[in-house]
Automatic annotation (TrEMBL):
Gene3D superfamilies: Fructose-1,6-Bisphosphatase, subunit A, domain 1. PROSITE patterns: IMP_1. Its cofactor is Mg(2+). InterPro entries: Inositol_monoP_metal-BS (IPR020583), Inositol_monophosphatase-like (IPR000760). Mg(2+) 1 binds at residues 69, 87, 89. This is 3'(2'),5'-bisphosphate nucleotidase. GO terms for molecular function: inositol monophosphate 1-phosphatase activity; metal ion binding. Keywords: Hydrolase, Magnesium, Metal-binding. GO terms for biological process: inositol metabolic process; signal transduction. Mg(2+) 2 binds at residue 90. The lineage of its organism: Bacteria, Candidatus Uhriibacteriota.
């Protein structure tokens, strides 16, 4: 998969997961929360967003290895040279308590180095995405993406 396709897949996958979370919030679905082995909270919404992101990535890259925060069994497996890393719901406690300050995160990693990443804030419909050699972008709602301007700090 070339870098532009990876960027597009990363961007859309983050939004797919976030839209699933927005649906859970709008429909007021029972979260069925529990604690993972490490003691952190996980909800049915985390798992639903994870499934949506995974399904989207696998549809574009069927052989993809996806390291998912919510699927602990994958954390101990040997990892390939290239993989996707996802956090389908960053801010689970906030989400579970009715707050809006949460996001989905998707990254593409090669040889242990993040190459492309996207963060989607579903409640304000804002996506920040980019990577080395493609630039950094911010996309509020359904408008055109705008490049983020950076300056070297002296």
């Amino acid at each position: 998969m070339d870098l532009r396709n990876v960027l597009n897949t990363t961007y859309i996958a983050a939004r797919v997961g976030g839209k699933e979370l927005r649906r859970w919030r709008a429909d007021n679905i029972d979260l069925k929360s529990e604690n993972k082995a490490d003691g952190t909270l996980v909800t049915a919404a985390d798992r639903a967003a994870s499934a949506a992101i995974t399904s989207y990535i696998k549809g574009r890259d069927p052989s993809a290895f996806i390291l998912d925060e919510e699927r602990e069994a994958l954390h101990t497996l040997a990892r390939p040279e290239s993989m996707w890393v996802i956090d389908p719901l960053d801010g689970t406690h906030v989400f579970a308590n009715g707050g809006d300050d949460f996001c989905t995160m998707v990254a593409y990693v090669q040889q242990g180095i993040p190459v492309i990443g996207a963060i989607y804030f579903p409640m304000i419909d804002l996506t920040v995405f980019g990577g080395k050699r493609v630039g950094a972008w911010v996309k509020p709602s359904e408008t055109m993406a705008s490049p983020l301007i950076s300056r070297r700090v002296q």
